[in-house]
Amino acid sequence: MGPAPLPAEAATPPSVAVASMTTARAGHTATYLNNGLVLVAGGRGREGYLKSAELYDRGANTWIPAASMAAPRSGQTATLLPDSRVLVIGGVNASGPLGTAELYDPDANRWSSAGTMRSRRIGHTATLLPDGRVLVVGGGPLPTAELFDPKTNQWLAAASMSEPRQQHSATLLEDGTVLVAGGLGSKGSVASAEIYHPLQDRWSLVASMNSSRAAHTGSLIAGGRVLVAGGLVTDAGITTSLNSVEIYDPARDAWSPGPTMVIIRSGHVAIPLCSNRILVAGGVAGFEGTATEQYDDQANAWLASPYLLLNRSGFSATLFGNCRILIAGGADGAVPLDAVEVLNPASAVVARTASTATVLPPTPGWLWLSLLILGLTGSALILIGSRHTLTGMARPLVTLGFQLSGILIATWLLLSLARVPVAAPANVAGAARPHELQLLDQPVAHVLVLTGVRSLGLIALALVWSTFLGLGIALIKTSLRQRRFVAVGATAAALWITPTFILAILVQELQAFVAGHSGLVVAAGFGDVNGIQLFWAAVVLGLRPAAYFFRHSDQILGLESALDYVRTAQAKGLPWHQVVSRHMLRGAAMPLLATWSNSLRIMIGSLPLVEYFFGYPGLGRVLILSLGLTYTGSSGRVHGDLAMGLVVMMAVILITLETAAALLQQRLDPRLRAVRAVA
Question: What's the CA gap between 15 and 339, in Å, rounded?
Fold first, then answer.
């Protein structure tokens, strides 16, 4: 007998793409209205903050334009009131945090003012109380709280908390009180918690969490307890995302550790499901940005859950009456999305198991091309053999031909015979970004040109800064002729022996410290090309070459300074900086160029790793994708021709630059010029 059929809920696809929004947005709100439509409002678009709104009709699978808000805003809260209106509060736009609030009337499709709060708020919470009022807490960070009464359309001051907070959690308990936990205070993340009593308008301190955290979620579970999951902790200026979980029991006023999530997350969403489980998704997560998890209270464990179609943060998640979840917008790295999908939490989970991909070998045309290059190079070598005066300049060109043909033959054989282990789940595109999936469907020549230009830009930027820094520090050390640079030499040695992936992680943490959020968003990739992404990738790509270039340039210039012609120039009273520029650099040109060529090899070898770490869609990253390590296409085949072309492009860049360096060596070195003159 075969396996038992799945239940009807589980047999449906895990996540299905539906109609896209009319506007890409992240940091927006989504509210399930009483008329069955979903109101999406505000957020940050590709050209700035938004005041537009739209309605999703699930039955027709269409988005309907709605009236726009009075002010653009992102990071606001949206609360469905008992009278079916939606209260939107605070947020931020180009002018800074907002104190205004607006009401949306779905029957009239109209926004109206809901007054102005006493304080401008971002990172606050809004909780609907049993009496119909809305409690707004913190943000900023602020210790204050306010109450909105929809019957009078007025704001009233509420009692203040014991300390300021933002990005905290606020959970309505079964007795009508509100538990506020954690958040960012004036000195970093906090562990304290307190409960608001609406009838007495007062706060009471309760037991603190075991760990401080902010940007976490708080969800009500069985027994009136509260599940607090994930978030981030800030300690001494260092921000780290969490996968730890704590459970608060109001009856005992105690926190107890819960089972840790598989993925670290902060700024994620937590959705109560029809099965009484809690689903968490998205946020600033680890490498598995599309993975979701479900907390089962009875088992006190996190269970496998379907994957999202896309990596997202800052998206909205709306639970429908049929227990499906509408996932809308968000950002893939720094790029707002308009893509929307409907997730079925009850569907069967396809395990991410390694399998052997079917390799689509490269076409024989590559082999014929390599043989043609090999034949032309051999003929050129025979011709040059009878003309010795050309041998010096022609040797690098002959070497170029042999190297290129060798790379072509070796890569063709490897891709023709290989079987690459890949992870190919049925409902996830792995780490590939949407624009990269489209890229892999383009003609090979188009992909090679586009990725080649991107990688050349990254290599050029890394080469410029690493060359100037490495050679510059070596020149300064030589010019000053002092021993103050022992620490610099030790630092260069440490950088040289440090693996590139370690440097990538360290630089990601530096970027996280500068940007003020977890570096894991960098590891997951910025998504599309932007200046910040290019900058940090170039920093990592050039670190080890800069260290290598400094160490060897320092040795070369030190040896050069001891030669007779340098000492003679000094004895004649020539200023030291002129001795360096007119004599030492010219004499050291050949070994310096050889050193530069070697540092280039280090850079090209690190290119795939750096591009993949930082989500930069150049030759190296797309090579990894084309090999099927994260994407195998709809046919489940490795892209042989694309992989072949990408390897050849990287080899051509390296060999061409090395050949140019070799020719330049012979052009600049005065001793080689003298030899050619004698010949």
Answer: 12
CB 319 within 8 A of CB 345: no
Q: Encode pLDDT of 370-414 as tens digits.
A: 667 666 666 666 665 555 544 555 566 666 666 666 666 666 665
Q: What is the C-alpha separation between 510 and 530, in angstroms, rounded? A: 18
Q: How far apart are CA 42 and CA 72, in angstroms?
A: 6
SS3 467: helix
Domain map (residue ranges) of the chain: 8-349, 370-678
Residues 158 and 135: their CA atoms lie apart, in Å, by 8
Please compute the mean of the pLDDT values over residues 563-587 and round it to a whole number.
Answer: 73
Round to whole Å and give the CA distance between 160 and 168: 15
| pTM confidence score | 0.58
Q: What is the pLDDT of residues 52-84, one digit of tens each?
A: 999 999 999 999 999 999 999 999 999 999 999
Q: Is residue 518 within 8 Å of 284, Cβ to Cβ?
A: yes
Number of DSSP helices (H) and strands (E) in the chain, helices first = 16, 41
* 3-state secondary structure at position 271: strand
Distance of alpha carbon 376 from alpha carbon 370, whole angstroms:
10
Residue whose pair of structure tokens reads 């042989």 in the numeric block: 640
The count of C-alpha atoms lying within 13 angstroms of the C-alpha of 513, restricted to the half-sphere facing its C-beta, is 10
| Phi, then psi, of 97 in degrees rounded to 5 | -60, 150
Q: What is the DSSP letter of 389?
A: G
Residues sharing a CB contact under 8 Å with residue 144, sequence separation 6 or more, in sequence order? 118, 119, 138, 157, 158, 160, 161
Half-sphere exposure of 553 (CA within 13 A, CB side): 30
Q: Which residues contact 506 (CB under 8 A, 6 or more apart)?
A: none
Spacing of C-alpha 675 from chain mean position = 54
CA atoms within 13 A on the CB side of 135: 29
Please say whether the beta carbons of 412 and 366 come within 8 A.
yes
Strands 358-360 and 637-639: parallel
The third-level CATH classification (topology) of the domain covering 370-678 is: MetI-like fold (1.10.3720)
pLDDT at 34: 93
What's the token pair of residue 579? 């001795």
Name which of 534, 535, 530 is nearest 46 in CA terms. 530
Level-2 CATH architecture, domain 8-349: 6 Propeller (2.120)
Question: pLDDT per residue over 578-631, tens digit each?
Answer: 777 677 776 676 777 777 777 777 788 788 888 877 777 788 877 776 665 443
466 CB burial (10 A radius; 0-12, 13-18, 19+): buried
Are 639 and 360 in contact by the 8 Å Cβ rule? The answer is yes
* CA–CA separation, 221 and 172 (whole Å): 11
pLDDT tens figures, 156-166: 999 999 999 99
Residue type, 40: V
User: Where are the extended beta strands (E) located within 142-216?
Assistant: 145-149, 154-158, 169-172, 178-181, 184-185, 188-189, 193-197, 202-206
Q: Of 119-123, 201-205, 517-521, where does mean pLDDT reach its minimum?
A: 517-521
Asked whether 239 and 515 are in contact (CB, 8 A), the reply is no
For residue 651, what is the enclosing H or E element? helix 640-668
C-beta separation of 306 from 349 below 8 A: yes
Helix (H) or strand (E) holding 412: helix 391-417
Per-residue exposure over 321-348, b if at least 16 CB sit within 10 Å of its own CB, e if not: eeebbbbbbbbbbbbbbbbbbbbbbbbb
What amino acid occupies position 522? V
Distance CA 368, CA 380 (A): 18
Task: Give dist(CA 228, CA 193) in Å, integer.
Answer: 12
Tokens matching residue 634: 């709809």
